[in-house]
Amino acid sequence: MTPSTDAEPTATQTWIVGATRITSVVESQTDHIPPEFFFPDASAEAVRRHAWLVPDYADTAGAISLRVQAFVIEVEGLTVVVDPCVGNGKKRSLPFWHDQSWPFLERLATAGCAPENVNLVIHTHLHADHVGWDTRREGDTWVPTFTRARHLYTEADLAYSKGSSTDAEDVYGDSIGPVFDAGLADIVAPDAVLGHGLSLEPSDGHTPGHVSLWVESRGERALITGDFLHHPVQFAEPDWAEIADADADAARQTRRRMMTRAAATGALVLGTHFSTRPAGRVVADADRWRFSAV
Ligand SMILES: [Zn+2]
Ligand SMILES: [Zn+2]
Predict the structure, then answer these.
(1) How far apart are CA 60 and CA 52, in angstroms?
(2) What whole-number distance in Å separates Cα of residue 233 and Cα of residue 35?
C-alpha cells in the first residue's frame, strides 16, 4: 500500500489529568508509511513482530502511521499550545509539508481555542513540524498567530535552528524570527519550572536543546514527549534512530531514561507523533517497553 494522508479532521480527543485538560488538535495523519522511511534500522518484518501496534500505529503489513498534532493544555484559566505543527504556505523541502493549506486553525476553534486567547506556546524543539503555526502569512510577511502568547525557546535549540537555516528552507526566518521581532519570545532553561504544574525536562539527542513537558495536577501526571521518540514501535525497539536525530547515541540514551521514568511514574504519555490513539501508559517488559493506549 502507498502512504495516504487523512483529508478529514479526526474527532477531537481530550484527556483529563487532575484539574488539567489536554486536547489533541490534528494537522495531518499519514498511514501505510514504509517504516524505513523514518527509521533506517527498521523493516516491515521487524515492525510486524510487535502485534500490539496494530491497528492504531501500524497495519498488518508492517507499515506505520504518524501524526502531526499539537496538544492544547487548559489549566487554572491558562491556555497553552504545545508544538504547533507545520503551518500553511511554508516553503519546505519535504513535499508533504510544502505550501500546505490545512484547516488547523478551524480545528483549533472547534476545540474551543481562539489564537488570541492562547497564553503560552511551548516548543519541545524547533523543527519545522513543531513551530509552523506560530506564524501566518500576511501579504509578504510572516506575523505571529498567537498574538498575546509568550513563546518559549531553549538557547541550544535556537542556535541549532539558526545554523540549520538555508535558502530552500528557513524555519528560523519564517516561523521564529517574527515572534522575537514582535517581542513575544522568552528564552528558558531546559529544566524550567513554568508554574500551574508544568515543567520541562531536558531530553536532548533528537536536537541539542530538546525538552519534554511534564504536567502534574492533583497527584496525577502526564508527559508530552516531543520527538525523543516518534512512534510507539520505539518502546520495543528503543535503539532505532530516527532520520532527523542530530545525535543518535544521545537520543538512544534519552529514550531509555525517559521510558524508564514514564513506566515508573505511571504517567499518561502523550506521543507528539503518535497516530489514532496518541495517549497511553508505558509498561516495562524486560529491558524493553510496550505502550498501552487509553
Ligand atoms: Zn523533530
Ligand atoms: Zn517532529
Answers:
(1) 10
(2) 10
Instruction: Tell me how far the alpha carbon of residue 210 lies from the centroid of ligand 1, in angstroms.
Output: 9
Residue 218 CB burial class (10 angstroms; 0-12, 13-18, ≥19): exposed
Radius of gyration of the chain from Cα atoms? 18
Tens of pLDDT, residue by residue over 198-256, are: 999 999 999 999 999 999 999 999 999 999 999 999 999 999 999 999 999 999 999 99
Residue 176 Cα to ligand 2 middle (Å):
16
Q: Which residue has the cell 516553503?
A: 91
Residues 6+ apart with CB under 8 A from 268: 15, 17, 220, 221, 222, 223, 279, 280, 281, 294
Give residue 230 CA to ligand 1 midpoint distance, Å: 8
Tell me phi and psi for residue 109, to 5 degrees.
-65, -40
Q: Residue 183 is which amino acid?
A: G
Please name the residue ranges forming H helices in the chain: 44-48, 104-110, 128-131, 155-164, 171, 177-181, 233-236, 248-265
Nearest to 19 by CA among 78, 80, 74, 81: 74
Q: 222 by DSSP, 3-state: which?
A: strand
| HSE-CB for 270 with a 13 A CA cutoff | 28
Asked whether the CA dihedral 66, 35, 234, 281 is positive or negative, the reply is positive
pTM: 0.96
Q: Are 154 and 211 in contact (CB under 8 A)?
A: yes
> 23-53, pLDDT tens digit by residue?
999 999 999 999 999 999 999 999 999 999 9
| Burial status of residue 114 (CB atoms within 10 A of its CB: 0-12, 13-18, 19 or more) | exposed
CB 232 within 8 A of CB 277: no
The Å distance, Cα 141 to ligand 1 centre, comes to 25
Asked if residue 12 lies in contact with residue 213, where contact means CB atoms within 8 angstroms, the answer is no
